[in-house]
Task: structure prediction
Amino acid sequence: MIEHLPEREQEWLARFFSTPNELNWSSLLDGSASARESDQVRQWLGLLAAPRPGAPLILPFARGGKIAGWFATTQGHSGTYELRDEINAWLGPTWLSRFERVAEDSNESMAAALRDRFGGIVYRFTGPDDAAMEAISARLSEFAGVLERRPPATRTRVRPIGAIRSDFERALLAGDEAQAEAMIAELKQTGRLNEENLRYLEVRLSAGLGLWPQIARDHWLIKTMADLALPPQILADLIEALYRTYVDEVEAGGEPAAIRDAFARHIAIPYPKLFASRRGIRAPRVVKAFLLFEQLQAKPDPAIIAGLLDLLPPGTPSLSAAPRAAEPALTRLAATTADEADEAFDDGQFDRAFEFYLRLPPSRKTISRLVSCVGTIGTTEARQRLLTLVDEAGADVVAGLPPGIASKIESLREAQSSGPPPAEKPADASANPWISWADQLQAGRDLTAAEQDVQSAPTNWDAAKLRESGQLARRFADIIGGLDGKAGAIARAAVPQIFASIFPTDSAPPPATKPIASLLFMLIAMDDALSRTDLDLLAQLASILIEQGLSSSEYVSLMSDIEDVQQRVGSYAYLPWSLDLSEALAILPCSSAAEREARLRLFLHLLGQASGFAHRLAPHDLIPIETLAKDYGVGPDAVSVLKRKSEAEADTSSMPSLNGKTIGIYTLAEAAGSRAKAALEKLFPGCKVVVNSDLVATPQLAGLAKTADMFVFAWKSSSHQAFYCVKDALTNGEPIWAQGKGTASILRAVLDHWPAAGNSARG
Result:
């Protein structure tokens, strides 16, 4: 081992094992040194041969024909103080008579050799007598053995919280609960989140996965969180969960009195503190909740009601018998007294108090309380309205403000001035915060604020005009797509916020959003490493783009981009994703010969990759491949090679017998459900497969969940009402979760469930 050390190591070792050290390097090389001394040196140099940062190195020196002491250091600058503690722990005053740090200016040649090679602190130690030296040698030999078996210390790089949070939001968009929970675990490891932050993440997880009743029915969770200064997203999630669970169904009946009664009983009376401030949230259900809350006041304010009605999208069923804000009677401000404003403020209704105080003559008290309201509301609009009032107030009023209030006003003014000057804002920026944000990134203005502001975009920024105007969408996509540096990094990190705002799950994306879908596809595909979450989002965007309508050249370009992604992730682990995407492309429109050729080329590329892991392919992989080959017009010869390699490795002895058993499948992708039914009945002759695609809870769905021996739930293509129907009806725990929407994912879910399936069948 010693003779095989690199020349660099042998050079300093020759210096160390030379006069005045009587243990000579040449004697260690030729084996003439005593076995005891040679073995000890070899043991420590074995650690040197496989260096670990900070690993100890302890070497002996000899005088008068025997070991007289040792020099110790670490392989690098780190760990030297820990080494001192470890040596004391192994030896201590029982054996040591001398333990000291060698001074850096010492001319001790052995210490200099170690210091010149490793650069760290060098220690020297010895024992009082021969017995102690024998004990020290034995203990050091044990210490070296422990170090050899000690696993290398790995220092995990802590990612920025913003990057982890972005991945968390991406996982929620893709409906990937496992990945989202992994991101929560990583956030916990940063040590920078308190208990409140972790509670927020749990709420966000349930909301992102659409588990609204799970949030709404946790009374004490909501009661506790209502007392906190909630971030806008979490406030929106809580109110959304309550509204969906307790009001949606009543609202469908269209009776305003019944709606208000349900809202009061289940939401307003139990959780009034949730309505302290809307915090600028524009989500329709949240706006309707605040509208209903205002209507329940002893003296509802017409102007507040009118403002909330105007925030609702056109065509939203009105919750008020009164006309909309276009009526002069509603837009006229009601007479407000100071007592009413004080009552609203004392009750913690800060939105209401803010509106009332603005109507009163400015005074020291009203401005002080307006400042307090703005601190809770936290929106740019509220800040601007307050500063306008202060600017228009008399100098005597402003001069009489307490120093603390004056300081807060100046802070608000500084925050106001840090944004883009009015002259730099395009004409439509004030009406579209997304365009304003893109312009801010492009100009490189206050990028830190831009990074923070976009976090509240899904709840507080109006995306309606961006979704409806192809011109604005194109402009936004062109600006964001051309960013680089820090601005580009901010845009890429904001992918979840852009996606959630422009492509909400409860409405179909209009054709005008096609440029933004292309932008998001590019931003995700550009990532160095693509996770399963990223792939799911890419598949969603590909479907959106094709359904919106692509020209022949755009379609061919999209297939080329997908082929590039497939090249990067082509492995058996991602085969279900690849097959599900190929199935979606086979079903979606494809009109021209060039498009069909591009689509076919992508599928053949997938087959070529599959040949590399054909020995791993199981029947549930081959059946969808065979079906897709027919869809793409590929002859059986292209699949036969895969089948031969697979059959050579196949072991069908473990296949369960599902004869006479019923497999239930729930999916809203009816074509995939039909294909999965045919494939399962081919795999398991004699089994019965029933597919259900009901949008809401129905007796048929509940009955299937109760009677099926196995129930597969394609949760990425599902209705939340159906989920709770199935969950309540199942008698044998959880359903079998399909990770994707397509046939391959459904089959993989069933076959991954083989042990349970076999037990069920044998039972």
